[in-house]
């Protein structure tokens, strides 16, 4: 971190939320990183529904110093993800993709990459300027 002051460390908060509060543990209780919890919809699979913190997502406060964790919650249920060879169908396969290594997964480990993508887009926005300005420079809009 010292050599890279602009770095942001994202850490999955963990999937121990069923254990109640104060389930965020190391490394997600770090002071110099952003811990990521998981949110989901009340709808079973597709479509609109009420957004809520996932039941399995670890919750704070941290043990000892009672800091509020996770720092942010991000959608992490029903995320279409790659599955390594030899891992077996641990989750529902994507429709029409039963023979492919793509499966729906859930967890704070799925929410963290979603947040990483958003963080990079925000950083790019502040470094490069507004999206519309880039389109004008490319000659794609007036």
Topology:
Elements: E1 10-12, E2 34-41, E3 51-53, E4 72-75, E5 79-82, E6 102-105, H1 108-128, H2 131-137
Parallel strand pairs: 1-2, 2-4
Antiparallel strand pairs: 2-3, 5-6
Which features does this protein show?
single chain; 142 residues; alpha/beta; Rossmann fold; four-stranded mixed β-sheet; two-stranded antiparallel sheet; 20% helix; globular; Peptidase_S8/S53_dom_sf; Peptidase_S8/S53_subtilisin
Give a brief rundown of this model.
With 142 residues, the protein is α/β, with parallel strands linked by helices. It has two helices and six strands; from the N terminus they run ββββββαα.
Describe the fold and architecture.
With 142 residues, the protein is an alpha/beta fold. The protein has one domain (10-132): Peptidase S8/S53 domain (Rossmann fold). It is built from 2 helices and 6 strands; from the N terminus they run ββββββαα. The strands form 2 sheets. Strands 1, 2, 3 and 4 form a 4-stranded mixed β-sheet that branches. The chain has a two-stranded antiparallel ribbon with strand order 5-6. The longest helix has 21 residues, at 108-128.
What is the count of structural domains? 1
Q: What is the averaged pLDDT score?
A: 81
Total DSSP E strands: 6
The CATH class, by name, is Alpha Beta
The total of helices stands at 2
Segments where pLDDT lies below 50 for 5+ residues?
none
Q: Structural class, please? A: alpha/beta
Tell me the Rg in angstroms: 18 Å
CATH superfamily: Peptidase S8/S53 domain
Q: In the CATH classification, which architecture applies?
A: 3-Layer(aba) Sandwich
Largest sheet: number of strands, sense, barrel closure:
4 strands, mixed
Determine the strand fraction and express it as a percent band. 15-25%
Gap from first CA to last CA: 42 Å
User: What's the helix-strand series?
Assistant: EEEEEEHH
């Amino acid at each position: 971190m010292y050599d890279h002051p602009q770095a942001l460390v994202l850490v999955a908060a963990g999937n121990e939320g069923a254990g109640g509060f104060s389930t965020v543990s190391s490394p997600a209780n770090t002071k110099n990183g952003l811990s990521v919890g998981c949110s989901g919809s009340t709808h079973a699979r597709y479509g609109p529904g009420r957004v809520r913190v996932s039941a399995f997502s670890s919750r704070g406060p941290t043990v000892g110093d009672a800091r509020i964790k996770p720092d942010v919650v991000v959608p992490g249920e029903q995320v279409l993800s790659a599955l390594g060879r030899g891992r077996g169908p641990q989750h529902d396969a994507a429709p029409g993709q039963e023979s492919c290594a793509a499966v729906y997964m859930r967890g704070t480990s799925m929410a963290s990459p979603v947040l990483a993508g958003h963080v990079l887009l925000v950083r790019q926005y502040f470094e490069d300027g507004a999206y519309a300005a880039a389109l004008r420079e490319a000659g794609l809009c007036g």
